[in-house]
Every structure is written in C-alpha cells, then in structure tokens.
Description:
Strand content: 35-45%
Helix content: 25-40%
Strand order of the largest sheet: 1-8-3-5-6
Oligomer: single chain
Number of domains: 1
Amino acid sequence: MPQTTLEITTSGPGLYEFTDGAAGFVDESGLETGLLTVFVRHTSCSLLIQENADPDVRRDLEAFFRRLVPPADDPAMAYLVHRTEGPDDMPAHIKAALTAVSLSIPIGGGRLALGTWQGIYLFEHRTRPHRRQIVLHIH
C-alpha cells in the first residue's frame, strides 16, 4: 500500500491547506479507487476538511477557536495545570482534542472524492513556528 509523509512548516496559529499535496500523492499512486487516510503526528495541531473558496471561513474558524479556548494566561483558563511549554500549549492540546488528528477520504476515478469547495487543512494551534508531519496512506 502506498504511503508518504508530508512536512508542513507553520508560522503560528491558523489553517494551512495541503489539498494539492494529498491529491498529488493519490495521482502518483495510480490507484483508481481506495481510501486515503491522513494522520498528523502531533498532539497540538489537528486536521480539518473545510471550505477553501472564501478566506473568511478560515478567519471565522480561527476566531471561534480563539474565543472557545483562550491562552492559559487568560483568567478563564486559571484551572489549567499543564503550563510547562507556555500559555498556548495546553489550549493547543484542548483544540486538538475537539477536532480530528486523522481523516479518511474516499478515492474514486483516481481522485480524491472531495466536494467542490472542500480542502484539506492542517490546523495549527501553537503560536511559534513548527514543522508538522502528516502521514498519507492509501488502502
């Protein structure tokens, strides 16, 4: 079964689209049908399938998650114990727990069966830059 790892460099919180990288991997595999599993190898970021046409969608999602889970130094988060790696770390773990660390996407006709406006995103939850590894595997 074909497998590869994509590396995505992030520069802070936000949605980083990698649909083209996943689609290219599927195309190179030569398989007509199957299932692409996408898995991120980290605990402070996550994966999303989301609209990729209007950038306001990404901005609104990012704003929502900032309000839902503020940094650990916000008074509303005073209950947090894990603070070793800074005020963004435990909130990043919470955001990752609320979203997905793996996705399954059908392949048909040699292509990802995504909808017209759907894209695949790494959702970075940390404030400093990171190199994130995403494993792609076709079944």
